[in-house]
Amino acid sequence: MRLRNPFIRNRADPHISLHDGRYHFTASVPEYDRIVLRRAPTLPGLAAAEERTLWIAPATGPACSLVWAPELHRIDGTWFVYFAAAPSRGIRDGLFQHRMYALRCAAEDPMQGEWAFAGQVDSGIDAFCLDATSFEHAGVQYYLWAQKHPGIPGNSNLYLAPLRDGLRIEGEPVLLTRPEFDWEVQGFLVNEGPSVLIRHGRVFVTYSASATDERYAMGLLWADADADLLDPASWRKSPTPVFVSDAEREVFGPGHNSFTIAPDGITDLLVYHARNYTEIEGDPLWNPDRHTCVQPLQWDAQGMPVFGRPLREVEIPEAVA
Q1: Backbone angles phi and psi of 193, in degrees to 5
Q2: Model confidence over 215-232: pLDDT tens digits?
Q3: In whole angstroms, what is the distance from residue 243 CA to residue 248 CA?
Q4: Which of 260, 253, 270 is nearest to 308 (CA)?
Q5: Residue 285 pLDDT level (bands cut at 50, 70, 90)
Q6: Per-residue pLDDT tens for 96-108?
Q7: Apex CA 68: angle with CA 66 and CA 73, to 5°?
């Protein structure tokens, strides 16, 4: 099956997941005012699938504006969508005062069931935070997110903690990474958009760094699968980015990724957003032209991921009959 990137236009911070044999897709919409979900029996079908609005931000309140980076997760039989939102889009009212929130759905079918606002997921650090994801490993459900810390210079770092009931963090958040290399501090000091892939005896965490223009790039952390993930010493960090802009292929600022699996049930797929030009008019935040892209992820002989270059034409392995 061949796909062409951009795969889904005007959808940033994409999250594609496979549940019960069907692909589910959610992402930030350019208006930043709602959370949407679409589903299809095939990966290509997501591009034209009907979108359901799960939740619309209220006119006022702590989560009324700048709704960012939703992710769909099923935890202990309950559906959750994690996202970040701010109290106002007015600078004088505190732009970028994001906190993390969740929607919850008890129904079997997330496209048909009733979704409810479940409140804030409190990180324990009262500061700007966003881009939450969750994963299960060795019997523990974890919550992983980006967070500004009042005592650390910069915009955001990555933190990890156990998660209880899909909504409550247990214990003190553990700092996994902060912006430190030159490629992570271009424009802003940012580590954000984490995503997890557990393969070949390791737990891999990708993340994105720097400003959201063509300087945006992806980094990589990893730990042994049998290590204590809450011990910062268990984690190693690539000193160089693993996925970057490619002017020859007109792909700029690739990042804020997720992972899913190809229809063959074997091939890992990298899902990310990017622009196809660099001359952005105005603030990059309000530019709608970050598009969802998909391509296969490769692996080397040592079991490390090989991201390669952004692809415009991709071959996605199909299911074997």
Answers
A1: 55, 50
A2: 999 999 999 999 999 999
A3: 14
A4: 270
A5: confident
A6: 799 999 999 999 9
A7: 145
144: its two tokens: 């992983």
In DSSP terms, 19 is beta-bridged to 22
Contacts of 204-207 with CB under 8 Å at 24 or more apart are 204/305, 205/144, 205/158, 205/176, 205/235, 206/242, 206/243, 206/257, 207/146, 207/158, 207/177
> What pLDDT sits at residue 77?
96
The tokens for 55 are: 């939740």
- Which of 86, 102, 150 lies closest to 285, judged by CA? 86
Query: Measured between alpha carbons, how far is 118 from 104 in angstroms, rounded to an integer?
Result: 6
CB 296 within 8 A of CB 314: yes
Strands of the 252-261 sheet, one edge to the other: 252-261, 268-275, 291-296
- 303 is written with which tokens? 């079991």
158: nearest Cα among 201, 73, 221, 216: 221
**46-50, long-range: CB < 8 A, 24+ apart:** 46/7, 46/8, 46/16, 47/7, 47/8, 49/25
pLDDT value for 94 = 54
**Mind telling me the catalytic residues?**
13, 192
